[in-house]
């Protein structure tokens, strides 16, 4: 027994502190998230290299801007740009409370999350979320699940996942919403008690992502029930999701 305790303690010391102490001040290495456009480097006349390689039509030119609601953050545009105008940083605080707020680039900064005073009053101390994967690849779902592990520990803020929509305050949507999943998504929403809200996580949920032009999608749910928070990424980092939720609720770290 003593040997087992010694081994467990040695592992604990070797691992160090695993929990991220402040989900708004972390710096995940090698994570590609917020795109940056260097306005000091003019585009080559007539060049559309970045637009041509973008798999989700997330880039526009003159001025060069990114729609993070579509962007998969693949980095192909950086490699294609002949003048080195584009780059990505590891800044994961990219959520927004409006769809338009996700557009950033030359002449336009990303719009930060605005505190939802009504939601803060209702759920600021205790929030229960039900996640629905509406045809996703499981990338976003894995990152959402990671919010419950020891690293990100979302429960310390009073935010937890629930198995039943009847116990949920908010619906966290991932995936592009396929025709097969649209009825299930609506059933989950109908089962949730009022007041309730929607959070869209990932490029697929926000815009359809790389599947936006597919005729197998039915995204009418979002026309009826607009999200109060958009968390872009493909998939988003757990820190993006956690900081976005806390900002929405006006919660300190």
Structural class: alpha/beta
Order of helices and strands: HEHEEHEEHEHEEHEHHEH
Low-confidence stretches are none
Oligomer state equals single chain
Total of helices: 9
- Strand order across the largest sheet: 7-6-8-9-10
- Tally of DSSP β-strands: 10
State the helicity in percent bands: 25-40%
Summarize the structure.
With 253 residues, this protein is an alpha/beta fold. Helices cover 28% and strands 15% of the residues.
Task: Give the key terms.
globular; 253 residues; alpha/beta
Overview of this protein structure:
With 253 residues, this protein is an alpha/beta fold. Helix content is 28%, strand content 15%. The chain contains 9 helices and 10 strands. The chain has helices at residues 2-15, 49-53, 76-80, 117-123, 139-146, 182-191, 203-207, 220-224, 238-248; strands at residues 35-37, 59-60, 65-67, 86-88, 103-105, 127-133, 159-161, 170-174, 197-201, 229-231. It has a 5-stranded parallel beta sheet with strand order 7-6-8-9-10, with helices on both faces. Strands 2-3-5 form a 3-stranded antiparallel beta sheet, with no helix packed on it. Strand 8, helix 6 and strand 9 (197-201) form a beta-alpha-beta unit. The longest helix is centred in the N-terminal third of the chain and has 14 residues, at 2-15. The radius of gyration is 20 Å and the shape is globular. The model has no long low-confidence stretch (mean pLDDT 95).
List the helices and strands and how they pair.
Layout: H1 2-15, E1 35-37, H2 49-53, E2 59-60, E3 65-67, H3 76-80, E4 86-88, E5 103-105, H4 117-123, E6 127-133, H5 139-146, E7 159-161, E8 170-174, H6 182-191, E9 197-201, H7 203-207, H8 220-224, E10 229-231, H9 238-248
Parallel strand pairs: 6-7, 6-8, 8-9, 9-10
Antiparallel strand pairs: 1-4, 2-3, 3-5
């Amino acid at each position: 027994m003593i040997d087992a305790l010694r081994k467990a303690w040695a592992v604990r010391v070797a691992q160090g502190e695993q929990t991220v102490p402040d989900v708004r001040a972390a710096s995940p290495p090698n994570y590609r998230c917020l795109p940056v456009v260097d306005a000091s480097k003019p585009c080559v006349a007539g060049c559309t290299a970045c637009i041509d390689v973008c798999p989700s039509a997330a880039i526009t030119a003159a001025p060069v801007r990114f729609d993070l609601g579509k962007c998969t953050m693949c980095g192909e545009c950086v490699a294609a740009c002949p003048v080195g105008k584009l780059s990505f940083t590891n800044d994961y605080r990219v959520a927004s409370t409006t769809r338009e707020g996700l557009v950033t680039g030359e002449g336009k900064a990303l719009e930060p999350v605005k505190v939802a005073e009504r939601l803060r009053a209702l759920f600021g101390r205790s929030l229960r979320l039900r996640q629905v994967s509406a045809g996703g690849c499981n990338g976003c779902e894995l990152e959402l699940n990671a919010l419950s592990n020891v690293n990100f520990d979302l429960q310390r803020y009073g935010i937890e996942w629930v198995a039943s929509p009847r116990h949920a305050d908010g619906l966290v949507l991932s995936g592009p919403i396929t025709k097969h999943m649209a009825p299930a998504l609506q059933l989950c929403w109908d089962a949730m008690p009022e007041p309730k809200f929607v959070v869209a996580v990932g490029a697929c949920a926000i815009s359809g992502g790389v599947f936006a032009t597919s005729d197998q999608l039915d995204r009418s749910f979002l026309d009826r029930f607009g999200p109060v928070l958009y968390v872009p990424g493909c998939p988003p980092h757990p820190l993006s999701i956690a900081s976005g939720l806390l900002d929405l609720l006006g919660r300190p770290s």
